[in-house]
Amino acid sequence: MTASTTTRTQLERTFDPRSIAIIGASTNASKRGYQAVRALQEAGYEFPVFPVNPTASEILGLTVTPAIGELPHGIDVALIALPGKAVPDALRDCAAVGIAGAVVLANGFKEIGEQGAELERQLAEAIAETGIRVIGPNTSGMFNVTTGANLVGLAGVPKGPISIVTQSGNMLLSLVNDNKVLRGPGFHTYIGLGNQADVRYDECVTELVRHERTGAVAIHSEGLQDGRAFLVAAAAATVHKPVVLLRGGRSEIGQRTALSHTGSIAGSDAVATAVLGQAGVELVDRSDELAVVAGALATTLPISHGRKVAILSDGGGHATLAADALTKAGVELAELSEQTQSVLRSLLGIPAAVHNPVDVAGATDANPGLFADCVETLMDDANVGLVLIVGLYGGYHLRFDERLRTQEGATALTLLHLSTQKRVPLMVQSCYAGDAVDNHTALRDGGVPVVSSIDHAVRIVAALDRRGHRVETASARSSLALPAPIVIAGATSGIMDEPTARRLAEAAGIDVGRWSLAADPDEVETAVREYDAPCALKIVSPQIIHKSDVGGVRLGVTALDAVQQAQSMIDTVLTNVPNAQITGIVVSPMAKSGVELLVGATRDPIFGPVVAFGSGGVMVEALKDVTFRAAPFTELEAAEMIDETIAARMLDGYRHLPVVDRAELARFLVKVGDIVAAHPQISELDLNPVIANEDGITPVDVRIVLSDNTSGAKL
């Protein structure tokens, strides 16, 4: 009996198998090889299952195949329930009979140290030889709830639109249980990556968003094998479907724990947070947020870009808390039109507050149907992109009068109709969300999140707000794919001398201001006279890294003292560094005063080239005001980067500071990103400080550090 069609890719067949082999199947009910067969039967898996065991003849009514080599050709996936040492040869045998993918349960690989790492290297060799796709090792398994392909053994997982990718089986349990408690929308596919010996997060994201039944991808990660590949996959995926991520290993201690648990290496938290957000990933900080945010994004319309939130409350306490929390989360409240306020006043009476937040002031106690009228009024306001109901909505028949149950049920259906018709999302926070309330169930079934926590409600609203912005601006964003690399011909690893660094920056379109290279003090004087302005002098020597430390910098030099200052600088440098070979002096006019900014770039070990931006000069250490973007990026992304910093407040003429052209600054940052993205040899680029004023954007220093990465075309 052959397996499913070969027109599907290997990953498609692995994630959605239409035939399964259980390698290491067992007649012992306590063994995973027995439990796997039973789980498939109990989940209603309708496709062929082939237990493999050299001694048994039948397991749970299925005929047992004695060896992998005797299986039918072309089975989609094999669950390998064997000890780690037996796995590499088992993979080779699976590939020989055309099995597309394998789920490797065994642990004892790189997560335990060098001995396990050697076994994982053998596993990697088998994967490379055969081309078989492997989930794991050290995995809890995978499942597809839709088809019943349960290779985890977890029963009772509700069917729905959330697909999950984690490295932790316990996180799967947490997500499923959180979803049950929250009465969330359920799950489609789960991939437990374990050590990521083969299948990675980026591949899972790309594949899962193609599934029609996947509404959102929820991820828990303790480390990405290829961070740049994940960014590219996420940037492409989030155009179509949301991706929500909870990261482990963000602290130093957490990083050590992640290393011992899965053998992963977690990178800089600040960089990761910025660049993952840049790729459109919705980041959550708490484990109890992952299921609730992913569920809401999977079922609910995002907030239309440019529109804001209206709060409708039946109590001032909840209204205030919601407003405070939304403001803290960076979500703006809508300013209601006079017409909207007038209609609300006629509906609710004089005691009600009809500004935003709207407080019904008891008007709905005997008539909860008024909620539908108020929601319709708010959704008709052009400024409103989402209505958040807070308080005890849906529980009026429990709180006041059982006879209100029918009216509340009808109101819920009306609210669903309004949200669908007007394409304005609705969010409900209710004190009764934890109870089995029929009208809440109707709302949830229609895609309206209903939660008991104001914090969860606000977290969802913030995610829907970002989602709307992301979808609206998708065409103006970078794919985050790296360009074809260009090699800097003749360059060697180490710090590039400043004149060469300046020329490289200029060739990339970065304006580094006026400058010249003088060979001796007389040429320094000539240059200063030509600039007709006070100048900065900087020594150029391959033996000197920190110029100012050895007296290799002079500021405010005029034509009158240029020769003396240049000679004095040379003498001081040679006194401090007798073997210094002085190859010249950089002469540049002193920059006018302005906003001092930090602009630099580095090559992150996880995500590749990233650009840093923030407050520069003497304020760098004091403020620690810096944010990041993965390069290359667009002007829109650069503008968002600028807005994230304290420095942004200084650009619009703050007190005595000049007004800075933000668009020009954004273009400057884009060019910095372009140069570091295109040149893999550049491991660091430092332009700190950059002076921004009404004349433009001028780097004071240009420092480039090269590595020995020389792949790519010659420059």
Give an overview in words.
It is a single chain. By secondary structure, the protein is of the alpha/beta class. The chain has five domains: 10-135, NAD(P)-binding Rossmann-like Domain (Rossmann fold); 157-285, 3-Layer(aba) Sandwich (Rossmann fold); 308-475, Succinyl-CoA synthetase domains (Rossmann fold), CATH 3.40.50.261; 512-589, Dna Ligase, domain 1 (2-Layer Sandwich); 595-714, D-amino Acid Aminotransferase, Chain A, domain 1 (2-Layer Sandwich), CATH 3.30.470. It contains 23 helices and 33 strands. Strands 21, 26, 27, 28, 29, 30, 31 and 32 form an eight-stranded antiparallel beta sheet that branches. A seven-stranded mixed beta sheet has the order 9-8-11-10-12-13-14, sandwiched between helices. It has a five-stranded parallel beta sheet with strand order 2-1-5-6-7, sandwiched between helices. The longest helix has 19 residues, at 454-472. The chain is flat, with a radius of gyration of 31 Å. The two termini are 57 Å apart.
